[in-house]
Design goal:
Elements: H1 3-24, H2 26-38, H3 47-68, H4 76-90, H5 96-114, H6 126-151, H7 156-178, H8 183-203, H9 211-247
Helix pairs in contact: 2-3, 3-4, 3-9, 4-5, 5-7, 6-7, 7-8, 8-9
């Protein structure tokens, strides 16, 4: 098989994989559509609501598990499972801190995954170090901006340090996503930060409650998780291709 035939074969393989990946993600897309179809501003706090909200993330975890196998349980799949737990907790306002803790664990798992050997490590340049700095400046500035509103909250003694730790962890995830070299992973992590900023502005009453704000939070949230999941699948695929190339 000459170089041109090999290249054509590789292209066909990539197209077939893209179709198979899209097919495996169909349950996720359908469950997201169901969530937005059923959600209303006056939706009751119930087990059903928690199930409908977390179902897309659980289906996304199943898709990643089917592609990457058991190794992903301690990686992105684990992060998705903790995210689904956070989704359930956030249905009830009194479980907000529990939900935030679950998402903090998810961000920590994602960060550790981005450091794993399945992701190609790109050497830091002055440009990437500048991006790290920018992200931490954004995270720190947002915390400083939120601080007066956190102090006014009923559980301020817990919220002030907890939100600080949470912002640090999600910012760390964003910076580590840069070094993976995976566009989907980076875009997913940054979109997650945007989603959480929008949620914090709403939860801590920085902005007036508006119906579109919930849609913005959830659209960016589901998109972020989708991109992180796809990035993980691509990372494992690229890692496998590199291993085959080295053996050949």
């Amino acid at each position: 098989m000459d170089i041109l035939e090999t290249d054509a074969y590789d292209r066909r393989q990539r197209r077939n994989m893209s179709r198979a990946l899209l097919f495996s993600l169909l349950p996720f897309f359908l469950s997201v559509a169901l969530y937005f179809y059923m959600w209303t501003p006056d939706s009751p706090m119930s087990i059903t609501s928690a199930g409908v909200k977390s179902a897309p993330i659980l289906l996304l975890a199943a898709a990643v598990l089917s592609w990457n196998g058991g190794q992903s349980v301690l990686g992105v799949v684990g992060g998705l499972l903790f995210s689904a737990l956070g989704d359930c907790c956030l249905i009830w306002p009194e479980l907000f801190l529990h939900g935030m803790a679950a998402f903090a664990v998810a961000h920590l798992i994602y960060s550790l995954t981005f450091l794993s050997s399945r992701y190609a490590t790109y050497s830091s340049s002055s440009w990437t170090r500048f991006l790290y700095l920018i992200l931490f400046i954004i995270g720190g500035s947002f915390y400083i901006y939120l601080y007066p509103f956190l102090k006014q909250a009923p559980d301020s003694d817990l919220l002030v340090p907890a939100v600080g730790v949470y912002i640090f962890l999600i910012t760390l995830m964003g910076t580590l996503a840069i070094r993976t070299g995976q566009a989907a992973t980076l875009l997913g992590s940054l979109t997650f930060m945007v989603s959480d900023i929008a949620l914090a502005l709403q939860v801590f009453k920085v902005t007036a409650p508006m119906e579109p704000s919930h849609a913005i939070v959830m659209v960016t949230y589901y998109l972020a998780q989708l991109l992180i999941a796809v990035g993980d699948i691509k990372a494992v695929e690229n890692n496998d291709d590199l291993s085959k190339w080295k053996r050949s």
